[in-house]
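Section 5.1 Outputs to date
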Amino acid sequence: MSEFLAIVADTWRQSKQQVVFIILGVLLAILCVVFVGWPRVHTDPDGTKRFGLRFIEQPANWASESWEVNYSLSVVTQRQIRGNPADEKERERNTELAAALEEARDRGKTLTPLQKGVEVWMLAAVTLISLLSMLLFIGASAAYFPNMLESGAVDIVLSKPLTRLKVFTGKYLGGLALYAFSVSVAYVVILIGVGLSTGVWHVRVLQALPLQLFSASVLYAIIAFIGVLTRSTAFAVVMGYVFFLVIDSVISGMVTLHRTGWSREVPFLDGLLAQAHYLPNLKFLNEVAGRSCLSLAPIDPQPIVVAAIWLLVTLGLAYSKFRRTDF
């Protein structure tokens, strides 16, 4: 076990990743200062407390209106399905989703203006942390496996009494653990800071953490496979950004178009768009992580199951290549 933990710890000692994670830590610290220090509580003459921001004058109901807009958009996106009156199962699903939507709306009516403002603020925090941290994580994780596979470095690693499975797993978990620790600390700091300053302890923001980490683990698995296959940090970095910024956006767009149902008139296009449901949709996972701040009903687990399958398959292929490689 000590040798395995040494592999995990060795991940941090890689100089290139250390620099990137220092940048990530500084960025998260800045975000914590902004999201904790900027909010203030405004009290109306009638005693109603509202969410506000320091140094900026806002309309009285801006936070509540922003909550309504974000909530409505999130519900539409989350519960958007392809209606087909001829399909009995689809009608049943529509009924279930309508009931869930009504229940979620009732939950929203119980929120105070201050609570709605805090939820919107937490949604903004989750969205920014998710996007910026993932962009930096790509730059860090892309070098983990190529650096380890360099001549000399891998000989030192494999000279230890460890199987290749433990070496591979330790390197993967080591990189993921650093990211998880950094992001988790940021969430906890923001939760405590906003709670102390506003009196609203929106613990639901922590529900965003598992999905964000899961999304990062899927992306890291893809990058790890590319790194093991090519042994090139530069190529892994480029492909990581291409997948996250371009391919994933295309997949998300195809899924959204397919769910609207407009492509049914063109069978070929409809079938093509349907294939996107079987690809990992990281944008969807990150959006759902943000929606956890808005008191929404549970989501369809299908995209999570698909992403989990891709995670296992990609890691399996990466390990298979790593195990069969001669050093």
